[in-house]
Amino acid sequence: MPEWLVLTLAMLAACVVVVVITLLRHRRAPEDEDPSETPDVIEYMTMWIGVVYAIVLGLAIAGVWEARSTAQDHVQAEAQALHEISERVRVYPPDVRDRIRADVNAYVGHVVTKEWKEMADKGEVTERGGELLGRLRADLTDYEPTSDFQAQAYQPLLDQMAAADQSRNARAESTGATMPGVVWFGLLAGAVITIGMVFALQIRRTPRELVLAGLFSALIAFLLFLIWDFDAPYSRGITASAEPFLHLFPGIP
Asked: Does the keyword Transmembrane apply (predicted)?
């Protein structure tokens, strides 16, 4: 099911639930009930519950957005390190240079065509990707420089290899959801309590109140969906992309 359709259904469902409960409550309310007699303490509590929940939602959105940005940084760092390796091996003999560049291209091609889909579907990197990166490391480290110029390039190449490996490990660790289950419980429970407090104010079924209650519940549904969408940096709607690989290695299919 498309992400936009899930969002639309969630917002519509939140509006419908609030409006239906309001209408049912109005039908069952005593004839002598006076909405103007809502105690001041309930209004005060409702206000503060809304404020606290808004802060929690804001922190949750900031957290998942930061995790998504960090995941994209891992991709950029990995692609840049591999690009540096591919460029700096030009000082090596042609056969060694071509072999190392072929290793880099094979690894990048696997990442953008197969591993990325595996990350989106299963939330994990592939063993084949690790094997290709290991082959690149072996070809890079096993070569013995034959000149001072090559020796000067050797250690920086090893540093870039370590940076690529570290970025891949960081990418692998950030493929899953970032929000713990207990936080989701708090967010969902807070949404129920916050929307439920609307009925503590003895909301009636006037068009203005129904519209405001529906928009309020739809807004909360939208924010919760936004958190869920950002929660898995490589799997859902607005995700970290493989664009750095495609930009630095335009010849990769």
From this structure: yes
CA torsion 245→249→251→253, rounded to 10°? -10
pLDDT per residue as tens digits for the range 5-31: 766 777 677 667 766 766 666 666 555
For residue 150, give both structure tokens: 């090559």
Query: Do residues 68 and 223 touch, judged by C-beta distance below 8 A?
Result: no
Buried b (16+ CB within 10 A) or exposed e, 195-231: bebbeeebbeeeeeebeebbebbbebbebbbbbbbbb
Residue 202, by phi and psi: left (phi above 0), alpha (psi -120 to 50) or beta?
left
Q: Cβ distance 140 to 85 under 8 Å?
A: yes
Helix, strand, coil percentages for the chain (3-state, nearest 5):
80, 0, 20
The answer to whether 53 touches 191, Cβ cutoff 8 Å, is: yes
